[in-house]
Amino acid sequence: MKLVTAIIKPHKLDDVKASLGEVGVAGMTVSEVRGFGRQRGHTETYRGAEYTVDFVPKVRVEVVVDDGDAAKVVEAIAGAARTDKIGDGKVWVTPVESITRIRTGEAGADAL
Amino acid sequence: MKLVTAIIKPHKLDDVKASLGEVGVAGMTVSEVRGFGRQRGHTETYRGAEYTVDFVPKVRVEVVVDDGDAAKVVEAIAGAARTDKIGDGKVWVTPVESITRIRTGEAGADAL
Amino acid sequence: MKLVTAIIKPHKLDDVKASLGEVGVAGMTVSEVRGFGRQRGHTETYRGAEYTVDFVPKVRVEVVVDDGDAAKVVEAIAGAARTDKIGDGKVWVTPVESITRIRTGEAGADAL
Amino acid sequence: MDYQGDHAWILTSSALVLFMTPGLAFFYGGMVRSKNMLGMLMQNFFSMGLISVIWGVVGFSLAFGNFGDGGLLGDFEFAWMRDLFDPSSGARPALDMIYQATFAIITPALITGAIADRMRFSAWVWFLGLWSILVYSPVAHWVFGGGWMAKMGALDFAGGAVVHINAGAAALAAVIILGKRKGWPKTAMPPHMLPWTLLGAGILWFGWFGFNAGSAGLANGQAVQAFVNTNMAAAAAMLGWLAVERLKDGHATTLGAASGAVAGLVAITPCAGFVSGMSPFYIGAAAGVICYLAIQLKFKLQYDDSLDVVGVHLVGGLVGSLLLGFFADDVVNALGQYAAVDGVFTGGGWGLFKDQAVASFATFGYSFAMSAIILLGLKAVLPKGIRVTEDEEDQGLDLTQHAEVSYALGDMGSMARE
Amino acid sequence: MDYQGDHAWILTSSALVLFMTPGLAFFYGGMVRSKNMLGMLMQNFFSMGLISVIWGVVGFSLAFGNFGDGGLLGDFEFAWMRDLFDPSSGARPALDMIYQATFAIITPALITGAIADRMRFSAWVWFLGLWSILVYSPVAHWVFGGGWMAKMGALDFAGGAVVHINAGAAALAAVIILGKRKGWPKTAMPPHMLPWTLLGAGILWFGWFGFNAGSAGLANGQAVQAFVNTNMAAAAAMLGWLAVERLKDGHATTLGAASGAVAGLVAITPCAGFVSGMSPFYIGAAAGVICYLAIQLKFKLQYDDSLDVVGVHLVGGLVGSLLLGFFADDVVNALGQYAAVDGVFTGGGWGLFKDQAVASFATFGYSFAMSAIILLGLKAVLPKGIRVTEDEEDQGLDLTQHAEVSYALGDMGSMARE
Amino acid sequence: MDYQGDHAWILTSSALVLFMTPGLAFFYGGMVRSKNMLGMLMQNFFSMGLISVIWGVVGFSLAFGNFGDGGLLGDFEFAWMRDLFDPSSGARPALDMIYQATFAIITPALITGAIADRMRFSAWVWFLGLWSILVYSPVAHWVFGGGWMAKMGALDFAGGAVVHINAGAAALAAVIILGKRKGWPKTAMPPHMLPWTLLGAGILWFGWFGFNAGSAGLANGQAVQAFVNTNMAAAAAMLGWLAVERLKDGHATTLGAASGAVAGLVAITPCAGFVSGMSPFYIGAAAGVICYLAIQLKFKLQYDDSLDVVGVHLVGGLVGSLLLGFFADDVVNALGQYAAVDGVFTGGGWGLFKDQAVASFATFGYSFAMSAIILLGLKAVLPKGIRVTEDEEDQGLDLTQHAEVSYALGDMGSMARE
Ligand SMILES: Nc1ncnc2c1ncn2[C@@H]1O[C@H](COP(=O)(O)OP(=O)(O)O)[C@@H](O)[C@H]1O
Ligand SMILES: Nc1ncnc2c1ncn2[C@@H]1O[C@H](COP(=O)(O)OP(=O)(O)O)[C@@H](O)[C@H]1O
Ligand SMILES: Nc1ncnc2c1ncn2[C@@H]1O[C@H](COP(=O)(O)OP(=O)(O)O)[C@@H](O)[C@H]1O
Question: Which of A44, D145, D186, D360 has the largest CB neighbor count within 10 A?
């Protein structure tokens, strides 16, 4: 089992979801995060005082997959999330030792 | 050290917390996430236009535990979070190489 | 590659960011979480009914780094986030098997 | 005498009282959980729609037709908006009709606080309409329309009985019949956004000047006195509530400030044009303290009066209606259309108090019984009943009753248009 | 006769109508995505600033100068705030000026709902000012200022044509010239916070009493009738909209309740002081149903009228202006400054209807054409054009036009002061 | 002459001014960090409670007793709500009392913007009460009550000195004594929810018509002129503020639009019934520009006037009070209860300006000194002092002072009822 974690641009989520569907991924978990990196943040002004905000809104996508599917899933995400502009994000893979479906107690690939 | 990550239904959080307390877990970190899976989302209507939302609100629970406790913790979570309805979620375990308590610098099991 | 995950106090984020900058970390992802541990929560009162909230607001910082940098990064975070009061949080390290920069497809250290 | 000055004030008052219903919607809305926010707003706003129509078609006539008959119900004299437009009086009947419409709208809206989070919207629609015709119009006739209570000598300046005891009694019947919210009282159900509640309280306080001072019907000294009393009772009740809250719970809360003010406004409603001097302070302070204590009852007696309509409106209405028996001042009374009468403290003996007690309990009894009958009837008749399913309650009224959500603040858009 | 009572009502009405523009800002603001909330609020609030000044300097004079000339435009009689303060009449000209100022402010503000999320703020500033002088003042003169439409015999009590058809036609021109929002209609763009929309609807309903009943100019029977009609039409339209929505979509929504009420308020605007009895119910119900159906058109015809200004204000304004030709009642009319006239249903034949149709379509044609000319001119002249860049649209108006964000609720502070 | 028309307007104005305090609460509340939202709301709403009571019991009498004595303080003539109800005048004294109560409520509430985020609630309670009696009532007597300033010939139509300079001076004393917020000015403390601020600004603008036009005391031409001036000054100030902001910072902001409008409303307050023609535009524009520049001072001088009460109210109040010495117009003046007098630009020479300057600085001096004395006294006397602890400041006023939170929007419920 592998956990594929991707940090993507918020408006690419629908494309990523569709692309994951195409490679047979039936479940995922997403959350709102803020990213810091090469992409510049923005400036806000309140009554003459200027503020810089370095963090930009991103979405984190997490998918647990079978070992053999990890590469394919990484590719599906990266393909769908690419806009070729700075800030497109990262995808990384970490090992998962076990997984359980809470409802049934099934483990391993059956839990996905 | 293991990191146990669970995706559960939001209203089961209190039960899971209680159950973790019973097996001696003294700390955890939780966050709001959205899940996609077998459980259906919902439909919204605004001025005659219909929208479908596939993601459903979930809570992610993360607990770092000693290697030996992982199985017990997974069981405690899965037991408490079960409602036997679709969408109860997953629990997975990943390896942790080191952990530090920021306040004291303690490492390993002492950091928990 | 390692993933360094830290749970810190929200108002220490700027210090941690600065400190990471000093050790050469150019990117990170942060998110709002709630923590449960030794630090006490708070009490709210509404029309005479009292409620206790055990969870306290925390920020999760995630940084993917080269294997060799992990220790340094943990130290940088722990140093910057310390207030010596209960609730300063944890830092843990997990293995990362691969990482890709979505925009360019670069992998490994080049993706950071 | 010219009527323009009076018209100006009653037109303004009508607008103010109409605005109270959105205010009430937000006062309540801030207190429910976020998944039920729109459900709460909708139940209130819908009253502005449905009751306006019912009131114009038949409600006003049932309440104010046969004016001064000393009886139980009006007639169909003004039904279908008939005979309201009389140019010589500047359309005074139409002015009275629309001013009273705003009272007819907000009274059932008060009940929504009790039944929060669990009533089917379609059941609410039925209940709202039936209640207005079968309960509100008759009770309004008894006092405002010159019915038996007015004849008996009971006083109710702007609706302590007609509005607050009436709605509070209906609320009590409704929570008993509907049952508790799932999880109550074990599960915490704290307010999701108190600033809405404070905003609503501000609007209510503002609009209540139209409610009470407008009830003088003219821009005269009684209107001024009612205005003064309204403000002072709200203020004293806020202080009273906060004082006891601080003593008992250790903190003075913003919800307490808002709730106390509303309790004072409720209690002064029947008294506004009938008392003077320091009286509004005493009545307000009493209401603040008593209502705070009254809302603790629901935990003891185990009825889920979700946002304390019983504790604030029923109890506050009783406090005001009964205290009027003590504080009524015939110098102020004399200005209005009512007979001048004094209370116990002002040398008038116990006569008025007795009338007030009779009127209060008659209102309570009729409203409680009739509301229960309507609800039990609807429960039996409506195919899906009057309460949402457990699943719907979990998901919230916003999604299940209205297919909407209140807040979509996040950056993460994932929604598909069909 | 003393004027104080009338003054009291028109001062109050002026305040109420002024308050409608913030109400409109929130009504619209709740419907846009959160990144454009402040942009929406700003376009509306800015109208309170810019138009007040323009109106005082020249706009009022262009609309109301040369009063009753039966012509096309006023003159400079009152320019630079001249000759408004006449102590003997209690400064009645100044009172008329400021009351009408609030109409001049809200009319272009209505357009912001159509162009939501994509117009440069600086382009809006130019458009707003030019439109007020070149479109609003002339059209106001035609009817309110005693110009050609008034002479012809067309009626417009409070602005069915001057305000709603006028703004709706401009909105249609604007969305055609500006183009669709990026992603529309495929991308979902649901309301970010409906409670704002409901709050705005509550404020609008409240303020509309000043809009319509204030248009009687006096605190007389016509004002009362207009007040009654306003409330009843809003109510009936809410029910009408919700009924058809429930039938077609399966749910009665809070957005529908708010939208329906506004549609009814729009439609009754031209009729408010001219119809009586049950008429407001019929006009309102028609508006509720027709406007609901009209807003579905944009998906068919593919114009991105973002918050349905065309569907609600243009169509609602037409419904009201034309139905007045059927329902006008000379008993009520007679009270005002206008000639008494009946409609088709009230025995007056088709004469009035024809005038209404001519006035409606003339207003539509002039406003549409002139708005298009202004916008095309600005597009050609302004260095950065009239629309934000794609990137700015993605980021939202709040950040790119105003360097601000609406919501900062989180605990995670990471912001540096320069 | 009938009084009903005047009563209608002053009753309406009283309601409008009362509504300004909730408006102010939200205007300020939107600008603080979310953890202090309820703390801000509470400080304002509490003023409605406490000051109403104090004003009725003693404050009004201290300010308006001994009317026209040319002295320093009123007496106890009206204490304990005595002698306010006089049927022959339609209870005019009671009407004046309640109208003025709303001013007494909002004036200290203005100070809450300066001391945001760091004052103990119990210390605020004490300060509020003492300040009202020791500072507000005397200063109100000097001008409004016919005290020495009025006798001298200084003019203050609706409270440029009594309200704005007075509150601004107290704010300055308070921020010096309380000290800076933890982290200021290094840590960013941006507004948590600007829509609240815009909503508050809308309510303030709306209510300010009651504040200024109500100060005529009658529904006459002066009221109309004051209404016109109020609107026009707010508008011009919004444009002035935005223009300089755009030049200096590159963007016109919504916070700027709201702040500019408020600055204009402040500056026109002393002038509203005394100037005419284009004057409100000049006064407003000057206030917009000058206040924008004034708020930058705090960074230079290092006092943490958190939401710019000094920059907007003290400076704006001074701008208006002093400019009145230039723009006063005796044609308008003559309508009121004051002596007709002209300013520098209107041929009246420097006499009025001198009086205005004396009145402004006397108000500033007295309020600053007395406020400092009260605060230093409280600091010495109150067991926990006047400021929250560092830890409490970190956690926020909502939790630590009121045991509440503002926003609970999430799906994740984890709260236990005790
Ligand atoms: N070392 C890192 N660890 C974790 N997240 C990172 C790291 N570097 C970048 N990110 C995440 O990836 C996002 C995109 O990175 P950025 O450098 O802006 O653009 P790009 O990936 O296109 O070069 C960041 O906003 C952040 O969320
Ligand atoms: N492959 C996956 N990777 C990560 N999270 C998943 C995955 N599959 C499901 N989830 C999470 O688990 C939740 C429940 O899954 P779902 O398929 O709806 O029900 P069940 O687990 O009961 O079969 C989802 O909402 C999602 O958050
Ligand atoms: N076992 C754990 N697994 C995951 N997160 C934990 C664990 N224990 C503590 N935490 C996180 O660390 C935070 C701080 O822990 P706490 O015990 O309060 O203080 P400290 O780390 O100073 O001893 C918690 O709020 C929680 O977010």
Answer: D145
